[in-house]
Amino acid sequence: MHMKGNGDQEPCFFLKGLQPSLYVELSHKGFHREVVTTVELGSETPADVRALLVYRWPRDVYVDPYQVASLSHQRGWQMLFNTAIDLEEPAHRTSEFSTYVFPSHAGPTPNPLKVTIPIHGRYHKPSFDGKTFTPVHIELPELLLWTKKCTPFQRLEPHTVLDAPCTASNTSICSWVKIQNPNKNSVPMSLHLPVGDGSTVRLISTGTLVVTLICCVVLCHSMLKHQLR
Amino acid sequence: MYSFTPEIKVCVLFPVSFVVRLALVVYGDYQDRNMVVKYTDIDYHVFTDAARFITEGQSPYNRSTYRYTPLLAWLLTPNIYLTVVFGKLLFIVCDVLSGLLIYKLLCLRGTARYVSSLWLLNPLPMGVSSRGNAESILSALVLGTLLCMEVRRLTWAAALYGLSVHMKIYPVTYALPIALSLTPVAFVKSLTTAPFCCLIRYGWVFLHETYFYHLTRRDIRHNFSPYFYMLYLTADSRWSQALGLAAFLPQLILLLVSSWTFHPDLAFTCFLHTAVFVSFNKVCTSQYFMWYLSLLPLVIPHLTLSVKQGLGLLLLWFAGQAVWLAPAYFLEFEGYNTFFLIWLAGLFFLVINSFILVQIIAHYRSRKSLDRQKAE
């Protein structure tokens, strides 16, 4: 269901002049990171403008919906997933997914808006070419804006119009304005995750089976020697 | 002069152990609210979410990663209706109950009852149950089974044994020595009643999540198992199934040999079964240690090891875990590639566990041999 405006083009005009900025950084190390997004809407942004951040995640990482649900009350935002998330599968058995982050404040969107999303790296297939890490690139999020007074069907270059859920409850669709080039980041985010060394599979398998067999034999010998009579 | 009799010690021991656990639950709530690192285990949130689904008339298996019996989620529905700490209170009560069962068993076996304090005042089970792990329910069921077997209350033993296998698969390894004591009908009934009821209610998903998932589980993420790295590297290879079977063989052989050699002493057999099962399993996490630690107090009075030797073995066990935890931390939280070191540490831990078990076996004196010694 699209939100209908009153046909007045003036309320949308302000969007052309907006210059919000978006900065994203990746914190922590290892398999458990945080993506910290800071959005500055600009001082001329009307108070009733709502923001929506759309993240497109690679299959190399996942966001835990249960963890996010427990954090959203503290952090003042809610997240909508476009698909169910498997928390355990390795990367090559999953697929990309998207999340929609809505600030959950009833009043005006905080300015600046800060969103911290915990992400977790998935295990990857072992590497057979000597590489010990696999690179993971994370796209920068898209910033969408919406205001009740404006139905942005008209041209708003350089921005474009995109349909997306109105709220995290996902009961209706709204026409959002996707802000072009808000990013202050000069390069996309990336991290490196350790991977197993596939070239050592023979050594590892042989070593594992030999040691477990030796331990088994020693224990059997001890049990038979000291058995209860 | 005040005489501190064993009876007074017991009157103090149980209340103190409960109060300490209760204090940890209260502290855990404080830490969860005020600190970044949470006290409560992730599993507790999984149990609570599954219980919530039940209160909404849905299946607990709607909660991703809930791989337990539905009975546990049903038991924890007061987490939703009353208070979210209900489950933790239940677990600490079961923990202290396990201590009581250990005490009773030690009394029946005519051995030092104060050894039950090794469980009641042990920080490991205190931490595990107050963090919201359900292992204490299982330890209470297993110990209850052993107690009922000891006093020949076989119907109760069958019921408790069936429930324990229903909750977690590993007690099925006790089947051989226990089956020798139960009638075939009682034995079969004990193992099938609870699962049959859950199958009727939840269907195939219950069988898959509670049993088949664990039987076929190949967790390629790092854990204490000596097989972890081998299974990770071969997960998608054509050798995966054969290697999985090869990994299962030492476990099977040791379970059969220990049943054969020690079955007259049920408690010791169960301890060996559990220790072997955990040490040689394809997946091993620190929660699993609780499974055999709950049976250790029954074994300790029969060991001829000196205190110094015992402490030495304990330190060795902790050292083995520390050697594994260091590279695991650097892998998971610092992003270093320490897979090879984790593999070595996993093998080292297996060697340590095997050495400790050999020492326990070599220094174990059953009740019969102790009585014989006394008579001589």
From TrEMBL, chain A:
Record Pfam families: PIG-X (PF08320)
Pathway: Glycolipid biosynthesis; glycosylphosphatidylinositol-anchor biosynthesis
Name of the molecule in the record: Phosphatidylinositol-glycan biosynthesis class X protein
Membrane topology, from the record: Single-pass membrane protein
InterPro entries: PIG-X/PBN1, PIGX
Family per record: Belongs to the PIGX family.
Chain segments annotated as transmembrane: 203-224
Organism: Oryzias latipes
Keyword Amino-acid biosynthesis: no
Keywords: Endoplasmic reticulum, Glycoprotein, GPI-anchor biosynthesis, Membrane, Transmembrane, Transmembrane helix
Domain of life where this protein originates: Eukaryota
Function: Stabilizing subunit of the glycosylphosphatidylinositol-mannosyltransferase I complex which catalyzes the transfer of the first mannose, via an alpha-1,4 bond from a dolichol-phosphate-mannose (Dol-P-Man) to the glucosaminyl acyl phosphatidylinositol (GlcN-(acyl)PI) intermediate to generate alpha-D-Man-(1->4)-alpha-D-GlcN-(1->6)-(1-radyl,2-acyl-sn-glycero-3-phospho)-2-acyl-inositol and participates in the sixth step of the glycosylphosphatidylinositol-anchor biosynthesis. Probably acts by stabilizing the mannosyltransferase PIGM.
Chief location: endoplasmic reticulum
GO cellular component terms listed in the entry, alphabetical order: endoplasmic reticulum membrane
GO biological process, one term: GPI anchor biosynthetic process
Entry-linked SMART domains: PIG-X
Cell compartments where the protein resides: Endoplasmic reticulum membrane
TrEMBL record, chain B:
EC number from the UniProt entry: 2.4.1.-
Enzyme class: transferase
A Gene Ontology biological process term: GPI anchor biosynthetic process
Statement: the UniProt record of this protein carries the keyword Oxidoreductase: no
Entry's localization field: Endoplasmic reticulum membrane
Membrane topology, as annotated: Multi-pass membrane protein
TM region positions: 12-30, 80-103, 242-262, 288-305, 312-330, 342-364
One cellular component (GO) term of this entry: endoplasmic reticulum membrane
Molecular function terms, GO-annotated: alpha-1,4-mannosyltransferase activity; GPI mannosyltransferase activity
Pathway(s) per entry: Glycolipid biosynthesis; glycosylphosphatidylinositol-anchor biosynthesis
Keywords from the named record: Endoplasmic reticulum, Glycosyltransferase, GPI-anchor biosynthesis, Membrane, Transferase, Transmembrane, Transmembrane helix
Protein purpose: Catalytic subunit of the glycosylphosphatidylinositol-mannosyltransferase I complex which catalyzes the transfer of the first mannose, via an alpha-1,4 bond from a dolichol-phosphate-mannose (Dol-P-Man) to the glucosaminyl acyl phosphatidylinositol (GlcN-(acyl)PI) intermediate to generate alpha-D-Man-(1->4)-alpha-D-GlcN-(1->6)-(1-radyl,2-acyl-sn-glycero-3-phospho)-2-acyl-inositol and participates in the sixth step of the glycosylphosphatidylinositol-anchor biosynthesis.
Family label: Belongs to the PIGM family.
Annotated protein name in UniProt: GPI alpha-1,4-mannosyltransferase I, catalytic subunit
